[in-house]
Amino acid sequence: MWATMKIVSYLRVSTARQGQSGLGLEAQAAAIEAYARRAGGRQLQTFTEIESGKNNQRPELAKALHLAKVTGATLVIAKLDRLSRNAAFLLSLKESGVKFVAADMPEANELTVGIMALVAQQEREAISKRTTEALKAARARGVRLGNPNGAAALKRAGKGNTASLQAIQDKADRHAENLRPVLQAMASEGITSLGSIASALNERGMLTPRGGRWHKSSVCNLLHRLGSRSMA
What we know:
The protein is α/β, with parallel strands linked by helices. It is built from 9 helices and 4 strands, in the order E-H-H-E-H-E-H-E-H-H-H-H-H.
C-alpha cells in the first residue's frame, strides 16, 4: 500500500491559445507541484481542460474525478477562485465524493465546496422559480407551451425506479470496464485467485464501486460483471 498521499491534478484554461502557449497552465502546474511537495504527495496523472468557463461540459474533469475515485486519490487544482463561480464544477465535486484540495486555498475542503455548491444551487432554484412564474404568466395570456407528446415520451423512456436501478447498474459496469486492463495485467503476472486479486487491487490503491477495499466476494462480483470467460 502506498504510504504517500496520491494526487490527481486538474488544470484549466479558457482558450485554445492559452492551451497551446502554456500561458496559465505552467503557473497552475507549478502551484500544484509545490503543494504536492509540501504535502509529501505523489502525482498519479494530470488532466488539462481547455474550455470556456461558460461551458458546463468538462470531459477532462470527469476523467480526473473518476481516477481520483477509483484510486482514493485527492483531486488538486491550482486556483479555486476561477472555478468557484461555476456551478457545474462545484456540483460535480460535491456529488463525486472525491477528496479535494485547492493549492491556493488548502484550507478549502469538501465542506467549503459543499457550501459553494449550495449557494450555486440556490441561485439555480431562484432562476427556475423565475422561469416557472414567467411560463405561468404566459399560459395565463393564452400562449400554448410544451410538447403534446411529452407524456408519451417520458413513458417510453421508462422513468421511475427501474431507470434509477439501471443507472446504478450502468455505473457499476463502467467501473468494472475501467478495471478490466488492470485485471488482465494481473492475469499475465499469474495473479488469478480471488484472494490474490483482492490483495493486488488493494495494494495498487484501486477501490470498489462503493469506494471500499476489495475482498474475495467483491472480486467475484467484479469478475462476474465482466464475464469470467473474457478474463481468462
